[in-house]
Amino acid sequence: MFALAVLAGIILLWYFRINQKYQYFKTRGIPFVKPTFLLGSGAPLLLKKKDILQHVRDIYQTHPTAKIIGLFDFTSPVWMVRDPDAIKQMGVKDFDHFSDHTPIYTRGDVEDIGTESLFGNSLLLLRGQKWRDMRATLSPAFTGSKLRHMFELISECSQSMVEFFREEAKAGKRLEYEMKDVFSRFSNDVIASVAFGIKVDSLRERENEFFVKGKELMNFQNMKTVVKVLLMRMSPRLMIKLKMDISSAEMNAYFRGMIMDNMKQRQQHGIVRNDMINILMQVRRGEIEHQKEEQASTEAGFAVVGESSIGKSSHNRVWSDNELAAQCFLFFIAGSDTVSTCLTFVSYELLINPDIQDKLYQEIVAVDRSLDGKPVSYEALQKMQYMDMVVSESLRLWPPAPFVDRFCVKDYLYNDEQGTRVQIHKNQLVWFPTTALHHDPKYYPDPFKFDPERFSEENRDKIRPGTYLPFGVGPRACIGSRFALLEVKVILYNLLRHFTLVRSEQTKVPLKLESKMIGIKIAGGVWLEFKPRE
Questions:
Q1: Separation CA 146–CA 88 (nearest Å)
Q2: Which residues pair with 100 in a beta bridge?
Q3: Is residue 93 pLDDT above 90, yes or no?
Q4: How far is CA 80 from CA 263, 408, 469, in A?
Q5: pTM exceeding the 0.85 threshold for the entire prediction
Q6: What is the rounded CA–CA span in Å between residue 130 and residue 492?
Q7: Residues 181/524, Cβ–Cβ less than 8 Å
Q8: Between residues 306 and 175, which one has the greater pLDDT?
Q9: Residue 87 to residue 105: CA distance in whole angstroms
Q10: Which residues fall within 8 angstroms of residue 531, CB to CB, at 6 or more apart?
């Protein structure tokens, strides 16, 4: 009896302690989303009641007049910044306070995860000075001059894919496809070519080893990966001691070996190829540095985020082979699913808006005539204004990342100059709600309408800074935004040049997103048919 009373007392004490944590924002006078016990504000995701885009929008709309609100990651406080001016201030001007992404190991005092992890040593997850040095190291690889050379490899993958569809059409086959699968294969082939220096054809060789391994790597829904992430959050020091990585040792060895062997072969035989591996070899030899760009970043696309002074700085750090190989690994982590998801949504919007598809096709025809039948060039693609408008609007309506996350690295005083002064403490999380800002009628009238004219030269100045964040904001914004836009535009150009996107028997309108905790997935996929143009 006594033992039961003690146990009941412990449970009661634990219950009150958790509830006390949930009073965090209330005691500070900050409006917040009422949490579910233990699950925090993420209960609708964990219980699969909402998709991630709707979840973020619903949190944003709970306090429509507030500039900053609170929510809970299980029992930890998270700050959602609703005010575009505050987002600019925190993401750009006060970047030194919010310079990191949410770390895998969420204990703020755990910074160095060693040099063996591929996932953890990718630019996406590096922190502090190590991230700054790696950003400066990689930044020259994504300038216009370097991308011009890589563009040929991207274009080859695009032309090969379109030629496959043309062959299928000539053979009398019906060209009905699920677009997420199609574009995942395209982005896989681009990554293989540009980041790993190998050539694969994932449409003709559907189960090639590189595609299968990549698909396994990007499967963050399997139970083993989920358990690893939870252990990293709860016992970071133990996981580091055990050298635990999100990807398996076998997977790490496969990709690391591919990159290292490729470097060795090139060094021995003097092979030069305009890709990521060649750039990393130049980095290792100290032969690459940031050069002044000859064009403004916006000429590469409205969604592009220009490089900050951090990316253009110099450093004396020497990188290990594994740390360099991790940056090729980054292409899979950050680029594969993002690009294929973007392309899937673009294709859906062009499908249900045939007038917009036709207008884009007319621009493609005009460019094609100017090239006298030659493949589209880097320069010609960059000048396609309507193409950029279509892609920019798709990124607004369907942002690949529903929110931008930042990890506070030193205490920050938030002051809206209207009476709200509150301390955001070191090691707390901050969210900038991308999808909610993109769908706020205050910033985008009729926000769920697909309207590329929002991004015309006449209208783009009306877009309020801090309300369009498809690639993030500030120095920590996506380093590969230019590269991603090139991928998206070149495959759209070649596909629409030869095919009309039409509805098939399996097309579902409107589309519906699956309720899942991680990532964006369309229920049933996006099916359509390629109809060859005359």
A1: 29
A2: 407
A3: yes
A4: 44, 13, 15
A5: yes
A6: 37
A7: no
A8: 175
A9: 25
A10: 175, 499, 500, 501, 502
